[in-house]
Design goal:
Number of helices: 6
CATH topology: Rossmann fold
Bound molecules: 1-O-pyrophosphono-5-O-phosphono-alpha-D-ribofuranose, uracil, magnesium ion
CATH architecture: 3-Layer(aba) Sandwich
CATH class: Alpha Beta
Number of strands: 13
Order of helices and strands: EEHHEEEHEEEEHEHEEEH
Radius of gyration: 18 Å
Structural class: alpha/beta
Shape: globular
Helix content: 25-40%
Low-confidence stretches: none
Largest sheet: 9 strands, mixed
Strand content: 25-35%
Mean pLDDT: 96
Amino acid sequence: MTIEDRDDAYLITHALAKDTLSKIRDADTEQVAFRKGLVKLGRICGYEIIDGAMETEYVSIETPMAETTGERVKGLDDVVIINVLRAATPFVEGLLKAFPRAKQGVISAGRDEEAGMNDDGEFPITVDYVKLPEIREQDTVIVADPMLATGSTMSAVLEYVLEGQATPENLFVLSAVSAPAGLLRVADAVPEADLLTVAIDDHLDENGFIVPGLGDAGDRAFRTT
Ligand SMILES: O=P(O)(O)OC[C@H]1O[C@H](OP(=O)(O)OP(=O)(O)O)[C@H](O)[C@@H]1O
Ligand SMILES: O=c1cc[nH]c(=O)[nH]1
Ligand SMILES: [Mg+2]
């Protein structure tokens, strides 16, 4: 078990997750390596979610040599992954390697950077496009976004994702880098969500960027400024 229970979140502590995050934090890591790093991190996080939160069942197998008992992960058909456009796209590509049969939802939600943060440290969020699958009671829902900064985007996204839906068995908010303020905001807004992250960073700067963080994940992955 390499998901470590913290008061504010569960940390994904796999050594390769930390190694990969360190590479993409580096300002010298260019677009292709950055994007591939996010894909790799998504895959590792997916494996860690399976290892830490999903059950296995015994199955009987006939090998070419003999009959034996093996184990199979339960519930891989009951996984829903929500891609928060746009920075989550490579992260989700990696998650899909762990959950190839997941149902997928897409939501385009972005901070209004011009409006800036209000006195509560919150951004107005613009939601442009929402296409979400049905959520059932037996589902494990993973809402993925590599960056959880003020938590404004994720709080808005979760409202859309959960509205009118059944309560899923597991609801995970998965990020690579989180700021303490964002974790608190999302935990307050949606206490039933389990917050999973590879790192909890120090603070947010005056523009709501995570410090030390990794900069603007969307811009670095998509080569925009
Ligand atoms: O916790 P918050 O303060 O809301 O910030 C986090 C959000 O900011 C980034 O997206 P951004 O708005 O830059 O969009 P992008 O993915 O298109 O770059 C990131 O991918 C999150 O969605
Ligand atoms: O540090 C941050 C904050 C929001 N979005 C990012 O991509 N990075
Ligand atoms: Mg961005």
